[in-house]
Amino acid sequence: MSKPTIDTAALGEKILRVIKTIYDPEIPVDIYELGLIYDVFVNEDFEVKILMTLTTPNCPVAETLPLEVEEKVKSINEVKDAEVEITFDPPWSQELMSEEAKLELGML
């Protein structure tokens, strides 16, 4: 019996919509627009791996933010499992922020 086919692009969009509801508590911009999400992988078993960073290694939400991302992505029906991997390579910098985030923070 073959696995049901799923539109991974559509699932990717759903994942991004969920990620865009998560905000850095110190900055009024979502973590996607801040440039904290480096990559999102979805395999054929609908397991998601998210490569993300934090604004600093001693970020006050270093423990809770990756968990929040994992939990919210796992809440999507099609997603079987989600894992967040934190990396500081490359380190986050303001250049990673979207134009929207820079505008929101008065940097443009």
TrEMBL record:
| Membrane-spanning intervals of the chain | none
Tell me where on the tree of life, at the top rank, the source sits.
Bacteria
Report domain MIP18 family-like positions: 13-86
InterPro entries per UniProt: Fe-S_Maturation_MIP18, FSCA_dom_sf, MIP18-like
The record's listing under Pfam families reads: FeS_assembly_P (PF01883)
Q: What's the protein called, per UniProt? A: FeS assembly SUF system protein
Species assigned in the record: Winogradskyella pacifica
- Lineage of this protein's species? Bacteria, Pseudomonadati, Bacteroidota, Flavobacteriia, Flavobacteriales
